[in-house]
Amino acid sequence: MTQHYALKTIENIASQGGEWATRFTSPEVLNNLCYTFRASAKPENLRATAGSCLVRLVRFSPSTIPVVLEKLTFKELVAGLARGTAREQQVNINLMNMALVGSSVITNMSKYLLALSEERSLVPSVVAMLEQVSLLIVYPVLECPMRECLIMQEN
């Protein structure tokens, strides 16, 4: 219960951004959030809140994307699209989306993008998500490929 309240506090601060949010973008905090998000023994609401914290912190500080991708690989994010709750799937697709968008400004992202391009279960996982037609995740699923196309057009 205490851990959930702590995560909710981080989530609220991360939503606001600013100086206080930067205090939560340290590698130690991000690693703990990644661990909690991946821990199958933890309750679903705790994992989803940890994932939401990650998404908000990465959105606020895109330079933290490589730190998160060291702990949550694209392979794990794609696998998370095929399983888990809608909230967990939304976290996975949002993290992938932000990594793709950030790839144009963050150095050394090519190794992560190469791993994503080799992931064969990505398309079947996205199609399976679309078949579930959860309004919570449809927009990010469609936004991700559209952003990637825009990035490719710019280059």
In words, what does this structure look like?
By secondary structure, this protein is mostly helical. It has one domain (2-154): Alpha Horseshoe (Leucine-rich Repeat Variant), CATH 1.25.10. Helices cover 78% and strands 0% of the residues. It is built from 10 helices and no strands. It is globular and about 40 Å long. The termini are far apart.
Entry keywords:
Leucine-rich Repeat Variant; 155 residues; globular; 78% helix; mainly alpha
Task: Please write the CATH class name.
Answer: Mainly Alpha
Using DSSP, what is the number of strands? 0
The total domain count is 1
Backbone CA Rg: 15 Å
Approximately how much helix is present in the residues?
A: over 70%
Q: Would you identify the CATH H-level superfamily?
A: Leucine-rich Repeat Variant
| CATH level-two architecture | Alpha Horseshoe
Instruction: Describe the largest sheet.
Output: none
Helix and strand layout, with pairings?
Elements: H1 2-16, H2 18-22, H3 27-38, H4 44-60, H5 65-71, H6 74-82, H7 86-102, H8 110-117, H9 122-132, H10 135-154
Helix pairs in contact: 1-4, 3-4, 4-7, 6-7, 6-9, 7-10
Q: Quick gist of this model?
A:
With about 160 residues, this protein is mainly alpha-helical. The protein is about 80% helix and about 0% strand. It has a single domain (about 1-155), classed as Leucine-rich Repeat Variant (Alpha Horseshoe), CATH 1.25.10.
